[in-house]
Structures are given as structure tokens and as C-alpha cells.
Please model this.
Amino acid sequence: MKVRNGIIGSYFIVLSSLAHADISSVDKDSILNALTSNIQSQYVEIKKIDKISSALAKFKVSPAFSNSQSQEQFASLLTAELQNIDKHFAVQWQNPNESQDRQTKYESWFAKLSRKNSGFNRVEILDGNIGYVDFWGFDALSDNSRKVAEGVMGFVSNVDALIFDLRKNGGGSAEMVQLISSYFLKPNTHLNSIYWRTTDTTREFHTFDKVNGSVSLTTPIYILTSRDTFSAAEEFAYNLKHLKRAKLVGETTKGGANPWQFYELGNGFRASIPIAKAVNPKTKTNWESVGVKPHIEVSHENALDVAYKMALNDVKKSVTDEYQVKEISDKLQELSRNKQG
Model:
């Protein structure tokens, strides 16, 4: 989740592939000790800290620890160990002796979203008057991203059912989750909360009082998910699922619910450590490590066809226009033939 209080945090993290270099056992000990110390003082899931410390202690005497030869290999091993417990953990290394201009530069998640239409790839009206919105991230909320989202919501404002495709969505901003959700829920609906360990405070996220465009409280919503659906995309699906506002179709999601911050470990290493956690007002918990389970479990490849058929059948029950009824019937027959073929 993007936050505004100066803490570097996001639901999303990108791991880097970095240049090879040798690493000494002394450096490995130092880095592991710094990592353990930072986790003990900063990690939000306090009840899991003993488990993590124990896992890292076992890793320290393992063949993988002693046999690791390079900084990037060591960082990758630490990341894998930590992500068994929390998907937002990660360890990265950048050679501190390289000049700044020689270091590999990586575009930030939000910079990429801003550059690429706020993540919206495909928006269309399918046969039967079913809306379809495919996007790969939740952009930081700005004047520009708000206009893009408003345009998308305006385009699908007259559909009889709506499909959100989050199968490749890696997450992003909780404020964008708020904005999009505000088109389908009552004003001031409590969506989610974030608890911060460092300040022992909780911030609540509600739908906005007003949005630019129409709000529909009854349009059927279907959300497509996969094992790659992550972070804020999981929040969007989780929120609407437990508010009984959407049906989820696809695979159980990746399982990342905790915002993070980078901490320096020395020798060019740094770790992203989750310092806050989502708390859903309905479930009193979140989807960390377990993911969001869909209502209808199907492979991600088949999720769109399944959700589309569900939407067509739902709409067919309520529409009276004979031409739309025929269009829906024809499309359902076509989908059935394609499946048989």
C-alpha cells in the first residue's frame, strides 16, 4: 500500500537480479544478525518473530548458508527463507563500490503505472452488455490517475454486469482501491484498516463520499483471480468478497497483506520488512500467506469464460429486451461450442 506519512511502503515489491560477487562468512554472519535484529524490532506480526528467529538460526548452520558464494545468491536464499512466512519480506544486494551511473536502475512500480495508463490494459463491452476491465496494478491516486479511473468507470457505467480481471494484477495503492470501490458501494463503507506497529495506530480506509460519475449498488460484479494476484489487488478482491458485493472466480491469490519498509543491513544489503498489516472490518484478519480464496475455483486460463457465462446467465434472468436476450443466448451457445471443441 502506498502511504502518505513518509514511510516507504507499498503492497508491492520487485526483486532484482544483480551482479555476481563473492561474500565472506564474516559478512554473512553480520548481515544475518542485522536482519534478525531489524525483524525483532520492526516486524508487525510480533507473534511470528520467534518462529522467524528460529528459522534464521537454523539457516545459519545449514549447508545452504555455508555453501553460498555470492551476494546475490545469499540475498536470494534469505528472501526464500523469509517468504515462507510473509510474502512481503525480501533481501536485496547492490554493490556499494560501484559508481552510481554503473548501477542497474529499475523503474519503480508507480512510475511504470503512471507511464502506462495507470495499469489499465483493456476495457470493453462484451456481448450481452457485460463490462470487462483488465488492469495490472492500482496506481497511486493523483489528478491524472483519477481521471483515467473515472474514464474507465464511465465507460462501463451502463453495463448489466461487470468483470474485473485481476489475474495479472500486482497491487499498488490502497487509495485507488478506495476510488474504484466507491463506484459500487455506499459512501463511507469501511473497506479495510491498516495497523502500524511503530506508532501503535490504525488507519481506516472507507469509500469516498462522492465520485465523478454514477454509483451502482446492484450491478453484478465478478473478479478474476490467479496465483499472481497480489497485494492491493488481493485487498480489492477480499474487501468486495466479504462485503458480499462481488463473486470471485479463479485461483487462490498469492497472499501479501502487509505494507513494508526497507532497512539497511550493511555491505550493500537491505531488507524489506513488513511494518504494518491489513485488518478487515468483517473478518478481523487478512489474507497474508493464505491468499484470497475465490467463490468458484477454476484455473486462471478458464476463469474469464466461467465468469462470463455466469454473468450472461445472471443478466438473462432480468433483461426483457428481446434483442439482448437473443444476443445472450447466442453467446452462451458459442461459449458452449468452444468448450466442447
Q: What stands out?
A: The first helix runs from residue 25 to 42.
